[in-house]
Design brief:
alpha+beta; 5-stranded mixed beta sheet; 21 helices; 24 strands; 21% strand
C-alpha cells in the first residue's frame, strides 16, 4: 500500500492560508488592496482587540456581482488574470486569487456587496471555508467585509499572536503604507472605536505625510520628480538637517506597491554623502514607476520583494532624483531665535567630569538652607580709608599677603584660647578644691566643681588616633594610596597620553567617559536620577518603533525616562536621565527603540543595559572635543585608579599601555 496521501480540502486550505495570513495585519493588507483594485476612492478600516476578534473594511468600489460572490472565495479565483501572458503586465496589487479563500479558511466572514448595475445587494456568510448564508440584501454600492474570530479553528497559530496593542500597531503600519502609496484615496482608520487616521484623498502626497507623521516631519521634506530611461521617481526626501538616527522612516513604493529594496536605499543614502552627519540616515517617501514587463513581483508571498530586469538603472534613477532635490530645494539651516533663547535658560547641570569642585557648591548654614547671596562690594577706598590701609600693610608679616580686611575681621582664635585656659587654671587650685573669686560658680552655697574628684596622672601610652579624631575627611586605611599620575598631553583631541606606574598609557577619552557614565548609571540603577525637561520632547516614530516603546515603557521608567503615549505613532518624553543632554533625547529614544526592535530576547536586565549603553554613549564627551587639562587628568585618574574600567559598554578597549622596557627596546636602548 502506498504511503503518499492526498490531503483533504480543508487541511490543504489551512496550510495555504498560512502563507498569506500570518496575523491581522496580513488580513487588512490583502482585503484593503482588493478595495484599491476595485477603484475605490474612500476606504474605511476598523479593528477591535488588535484585529483578532473584529476587522471591518468598507469601500465604495465597483463591488462584486451576485453570481460571482461564491466564486470569489474559491482558491486561485481572480478577475485580474486570464492567461499566462498577463503575468508580464500586472498593474493591480492582487492577482493570485488566494486572499479571500485564505482568510475565509481561518475566520468567520460576513460580506455585503453591490454593483452599480444591480438593484439589490448580496449578503454572504462563510465560516472556516464553508458557506453558511447566501442571499440578497439592501446595501450601498461597494463592498463591506467583516472578519471575526481570526484563527478560531487553528489554536496553534493563535498562541503566536502578540498583545492587542502590538497587533493593532502592525495594522496601523499597513494602513499608513497604503495611504502613502495612494494619496488619491481617502483612508479612515478606526481603532477600538477611536478614529486615529484620516487622509484627505486630494491626490497630494504631502497631505498624507502631514496626516500620518505630523507637521514637523512634513516641514523637513523636499519634493522630487525625475525620469530616466522610462523609469520615474517621484515623492519626497528629507532635508539633511532633518535626518534621523535610524532607517525606519524610509518608504519605497513600486507602481503603488510597498517594497523593500536594499539597492534603492543604498542609492538614496549615497546621494546624501558629504551632506549628512555620520550616524544619521535620511527619510523618504518615494514612488518608483517601472513598466510592468521590467519587474517581477511574483517573488515573495507578501509581494514586498521584487526583482528588476535592470536594477542598475532603477538605482541610478533614485540617486539622481534625490541629488536633484537636494541641489534645487535644500537651503542653509535657519536659526530659530526663539528656540535659541529657550535653550539659553539655565537649567540643572548634567555632566561634570571634574568632581568635588567647591566653586560650584553653595555654602550651607546649619539650618540646611542655602546662604543668601552676598551684597556687591563697595568701592575700595570708601570701605577702607588710606590711613587704615597703611596700618594694615605695616602690621602684616613680610611673607603674608595683604588683603582687603574690612570691618568684618576674623576673630583671633589663638588669643581667645589662651585667655580661656588662663581663667580655667586660675579657677582651680592644685588640689582642685580651692577656687578663685572670679571663677567660682556657686550652687546652694557649694561650688559646682567641689564634688569632682581630683584628676589622676596616667602613664602616657602610644595611642593610634581614631578616624573621628582626624580633621576633615582624613581616614585611616591600610590600602596604599595610588601612585601619582603625570599627564603628558592629548593626541588628535581624542586620546589622552599620560605616564603612570612606569608605563605610558593612551586612553580613548570617549570610550573611557562612556564606561564611567555607564558604571555610574548601573550603580544607581534602583534610583536613577532624572531631570524634568523644560520643554517635553515629542518624537514621531514608525509603527514598529512605536509598538516597541509602548511595550517597554516600564523599562524606560526604570532607566530615568518618563515616556508617555502621545497617540498616532508618537510619544512624548517629559523626563530623562540627569547625565543626558536634552538635545540628545530624541536620538537616544530612536536608537533605543531600534535596538529593542532587533533584540530577540525579553530579559529585563538586557533591555535596561541596552538603554544604558545608548544613553552613556550620547552623554559621553565626543572625539574631537576640546577639554581642559583638569578634565583630562581627572578622567585619566578615574580610569587608571579603577581596575574595572577596561572596556567601553560596546566592547572597545578603553586604554592601551606600553612599559618603559618595551619603549626602550623600540629605540634600541635594550637589546
Amino acid at each position: 500500500m502506498g504511503r503518499i496521501n492526498v490531503l483533504p480540502k480543508h487541511i490543504a486550505e489551512l496550510i495555504a492560508a498560512g502563507e498569506v495570513v500570518e496575523r491581522p495585519a496580513s488580513v487588512v493588507k490583502e482585503l484593503a488592496e482588493n478595495s484599491i483594485d476595485a477603484g475605490a476612492t474612500a476606504v474605511t478600516i476598523e479593528i477591535r482587540n488588535g484585529g483578532i476578534t473584529y476587522i471591518r473594511i468598507t469601500d465604495n468600489g465597483c463591488g462584486i456581482m451576485h453570481d460571482d460572490v461564491p466564486k470569489a472565495f474559491l482558491s486561485h479565483a481572480t478577475s485580474k488574470l486570464k492567461n499566462a501572458q498577463d503575468l508580464n503586465s500586472i498593474f493591480t496589487l492582487g492577482f493570485r486569487g488566494e486572499a479571500l479563500s485564505s482568510v475565509a479558511a481561518v475566520s468567520r466572514i460576513e460580506l455585503f456587496t453591490k454593483t452599480a448595475e444591480e438593484n439589490d445587494g448580496t449578503l454572504y456568510n462563510i465560516e472556516g471555508g464553508e458557506q453558511t448564508r447566501f442571499e440578497t440584501a439592501g446595501c450601498p454600492n461597494g463592498t463591506t467585509i467583516v472578519v471575526r474570530d481570526l484563527f478560531y479553528n487553528t489554536p496553534a497559530r493563535m498562541k503566536f499572536m502578540k498583545k492587542d496593542v502590538s497587533e493593532a500597531n502592525a495594522v496601523a503600519d499597513v494602513v499608513d503604507k497604503l495611504a502613502l502609496s495612494h494619496p488619491e484615496i481617502s483612508f479612515l482608520f478606526i481603532r477600538d472605536g477611536k478614529q486615529t487616521l484620516i487622509t484627505p484623498g486630494d491626490g497630494k502626497l504631502i497631505s498624507v505625510i502631514y496626516s500620518i507623521f505630523g507637521r514637523v516631519f512634513a516641514e523637513g521634506m523636499l519634493e522630487t520628480e525625475y525620469e530616466l530611461d522610462g523609469i520615474g521617481v517621484s515623492g519626497f526626501v528629507c532635508r539633511p538637517a532633518s535626518a534621523r538616527a535610524t532607517r525606519s522612516m524610509q518608504y519605497f513604493f513600486l507602481n503603488g506597491r510597498f517594497i523593500r529594496s536594499r539597492s534603492c536605499a543604498a542609492s538614496m543614502e549615497n546621494a546624501y554623502k558629504n551632506s549628512i552627519m555620520v550616524g544619521k540616515f535620511p527619510s523618504c517617501v518615494l514612488n518608483i514607476t517601472v513598466p510592468p514587463g521590467n519587474v517581477d513581483v511574483n517573488v515573495h508571498p507578501a509581494k514586498t520583494e521584487v526583482r528588476f530586469s535592470d536594477e542598475r538603472r532603477v538605482s541610478s534613477a533614485v540617486y539622481y532624483a534625490v541629488k536633484n532635490a537636494l541641489a534645487e530645494y535644500d537651503t542653509r539651516v535657519q536659526i530659530d531665535l526663539a528656540k535659541v533663547a529657550q535653550k539659553a535658560i539655565p537649567n540643572a547641570s548634567q555632566l561634570y567630569m571634574v568632581e568635588d569642585d567647591t566653586a560650584r557648591e553653595k555654602p550651607v548654614k546649619s539650618s540646611g538652607k542655602a546662604e543668601a547671596k552676598p551684597e556687591p562690594k563697595k568701592d575700595f577706598w570708601q570701605t577702607m580709608p588710606s590711613q587704615k590701609f597703611r596700618q594694615n600693610v605695616l602690621s602684616s608679616p613680610p611673607s603674608g599677603r595683604v588683603t582687603h580686611a574690612a570691618e568684618n575681621a576674623e576673630p583671633d582664635l589663638i588669643n581667645e584660647y589662651k585667655a580661656k585656659r588662663t581663667e580655667r587654671v586660675a579657677a582651680f587650685s592644685d588640689s582642685g578644691s580651692v577656687q578663685s573669686e572670679k571663677g567660682a560658680v556657686k550652687n546652694g552655697g557649694k561650688s559646682a566643681f567641689a564634688s569632682m574628684p581630683a584628676p589622676q596622672k596616667k602613664e602616657p601610652t602610644e595611642k593610634r588616633p581614631e578616624s573621628d579624631d582626624l580633621p576633615g575627611n582624613v581616614r585611616i586605611t591600610d590600602k596604599k594610596p595610588p601612585r601619582p599620575l603625570r599627564l603628558l598631553g592629548e593626541a588628535f583631541k581624542t586620546y589622552i597620553i599620560c605616564e603612570y606606574d612606569g608605563k605610558v598609557c593612551i586612553i580613548d577619552k570617549h570610550a573611557a567617559h562612556e564606561r564611567v557614565i555607564f558604571n555610574r548609571m548601573k550603580e544607581k540603577e534602583k534610583n536613577c536620577a532624572s531631570q524634568t525637561l523644560l520643554a517635553p520632547v515629542t518624537i514621531t516614530l514608525s509603527k514598529a518603533e512605536y509598538a516597541v516603546i509602548l511595550e517597554n515603557i516600564q523599562v524606560f521608567s526604570e532607566c530615568g525616562f518618563l515616556v508617555e503615549d502621545f497617540g498616532n505613532g508618537s510619544v512624548i518624553v517629559r523626563e530623562c536621565p540627569m547625565l543626558l543632554d536634552a538635545d540628545d533625547v530624541e536620538d537616544v529614544v530612536l536608537e533605543i527603540a531600534s535596538n529593542l526592535s532587533l533584540s530577540k530576547t525579553n530579559i529585563q536586565s538586557e533591555k535596561i543595559d541596552r538603554i544604558y549603553h545608548t544613553a552613556a554613549c550620547k552623554a559621553a564627551i565626543k572625539a574631537g572635543y576640546k577639554n581642559s587639562t583638569a578634565e583630562l587628568k581627572a578622567l585619566a585618574e578615574r580610569v587608571l585608579y579603577n581596575d574595572d574600567i577596561r572596556y567601553c559598554p560596546h566592547g572597545r578597549p578603553v586604554l592601551v599601555e606600553m612599559s618603559q622596557y618595551e619603549l626602550e627596546k623600540q629605540f634600541g636602548r635594550i637589546q
